[in-house]
Amino acid sequence: MKKLFRMLFQRVVIVAFFILVQAFLLVAMIWKFNDYFVYFYAICTVLSIVVVLYIINSRSNPGYKIAWIVPILLVPIFGGLFYLMFGGNRLGKRERRKMAVVAERTRAVSQDDCPVLDKLCELNPEAGNQSRYINDWAGYPPYQHTQTEFLPMGEVKFQRLAEELNKAEHYIFLEYFIIQEGKMWNTILDILVEKVKQGVDVRVIYDDMGCITT
Asked: Which of 2, 8, 70, 201 is the most exposed, having the fewest neighbouring CB atoms within 10 Å of its CB?
């Protein structure tokens, strides 16, 4: 009984329930006003076209754009409505103010003049233009004397991750799409708990939709 109760109140079940309720109400409205269905269909189609044009011209991630444009074009009668209900930037004023403060602090500690960027533009104009765009819009200039290690296998990456986490003395920042209980995450979690006890600042970002069932 407790398992059933817990399952019914999972976020994925609640979200699915409200989506079904909205779909049912929409179908009921169409059936009730059957004589006006042609006008309703035309309005929804025009709305979907306007939404697609808005998405195309927005500054969103290209992957995000495609993820919305394809279903909207496949199902124009519902696509535009679903975007208005679930798409777009849902950050409130408070969150936007917090993000603005973070952006201002980031710009304050970034390089004002960037000789590395000028050198990159000379060596590779295409890479230099991309880096300039990232610098101007995200506030992250290029740096020299950094090191990158390629980890070809997940097992190798997991081993190196555990080693580096154990070395941390000041802070740990992790960002993942999906986090799920298991050998890998439980091992990492034990390390993070120990590091917190040692006074290390540990912060983890995960994707809300990616982890909706975990």
From this structure: 2
Distance CA(72)–CA(75), nearest Å, equals 5
In a domain, 147, yes or no: no
Extract the tokens encoding 102.
Answer: 């973070």
* Whether residue 24 sits in one domain with residue 81: yes
Query: Is pLDDT at 26 greater than 80 in this prediction?
Result: no
Cβ proximity of 122 and 94 under 8 Å: no
pTM: 0.54
Q: Confidence class of residue 71 from pLDDT cuts 50, 70 and 90?
A: confident
How do residues 159-202 score in pLDDT, each as one tens digit?
999 999 999 999 999 999 999 999 999 999 999 999 999 999 99
Q: Which residues pair with 174 in a beta bridge?
A: 204
Q: Under 8 Å CB-to-CB from 121, ≥6 apart: which residues?
A: 128, 129, 132
| Residue after which a domain boundary falls, among 42, 61, 86 | 86
Count of domains forming the chain:
3
Q: Residue 18, Cα to own-chain centre: how many angstroms? A: 22
Dist CA 177 CA 211 (whole Å)? 7
Gyration radius of the chain over CA positions: 24
Question: Shortest CA distance to 199 belongs to which of 168, 163, 157?
Answer: 168
Non-local (6+) Cβ contacts of 37 within 8 A are: 30
C-alpha to C-alpha distance for 135 and 117, rounded to whole angstroms: 9
Distance from C-alpha of 82 to C-alpha of 58, rounded to nearest angstrom: 17
